[in-house]
């Protein structure tokens, strides 16, 4: 099973993206982890290591970042 990460900031656009992201991926192929960077500030460095510049952003391993329209910068 592959892993998929969604980093977001908790805004309405991010919450909507979270729901769409989870529904779009095949649960038999992907283990999805959602990371709310507003609540999990200790994960910002991890997001930056994956190349995340803005949220929402998702990573489908082995390490491909899927760009989205920028809504919030990762600070």
What does this structure look like?
The chain is an alpha+beta fold and 75 residues long. It has one domain (2-73): Glutaredoxin (3-Layer(aba) Sandwich). It has helices at 12-24, 44-49, and strands spanning 2-8, 30-36, 54-55, 57-60, 64-66, 72-73. A 4-stranded mixed β-sheet has the order 2-1-4-5, covered by helices on one side. A two-stranded antiparallel sheet has the order 3-6. The longest helix is centred in the first third of the chain and has 13 residues, at 12-24. The mean pLDDT is 81.
Radius of gyration: 11 Å
Mean of all residue-level pLDDT scores? 81
Poorly predicted regions: none
Please indicate the count of domains.
Answer: 1
Q: Which sequence of SSEs, written as H and E, runs from N to C? A: EHEHEEEE
């Amino acid at each position: 099973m592959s892993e998929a990460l969604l980093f977001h900031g908790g805004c309405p656009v991010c919450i909507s993206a979270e729901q769409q992201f989870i529904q779009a991926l095949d649960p038999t192929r992907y283990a999805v982890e959602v990371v709310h960077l507003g609540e999990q500030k200790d994960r910002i460095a991890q997001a930056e290591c994956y190349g995340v510049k803005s949220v929402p952003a998702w990573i489908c391993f082995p390490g491909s970042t899927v760009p989205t329209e920028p809504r919030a910068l990762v600070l």
